[in-house]
Amino acid sequence: MVTNDGTIIKIKHEILSEVAKLVFEGKFEEEKDNLPYKLMPGPRAQYRCCVYKEREIVRQRIRLAEGKNADGAVNDLVVQVVRAACEECPISRYVVTDNCQKCMGHACQQVCRFGAIDIGRNRAHIDAAKCKECGKCAQACPYNAIADLIRPCKRSCPVNAITMDEYGVCQIDETKCIECGHCIHSCPFGALSSKANLVQVCRDLVEGKRLVAMIAPSWEGQFGSEITVASWRNVLKEAGFDDLVEVALGADMTAYSEAAEWGEAYKEGKKKTTSCCPAFVNMIEKHFPALKEAMSETASPMCGVSRMLKVLDPDVKTVFIGPCIAKKSEVNSHKIKGNADYALTFGEIRAIIRAKGLTLKPEPNEKQDGSIFGKKFGNNGGVTEAVIECMKEQGISDDVSVHKCNGADECKKALLLMKAGRLPADFIEGMVCTGGCVGGPSRHSDPVIIKKDREKLLSEADGRNVEENLRRTGAIDIDMKR
Question: What are 157's strand-pairing partners?
Answer without folding.
Answer: none
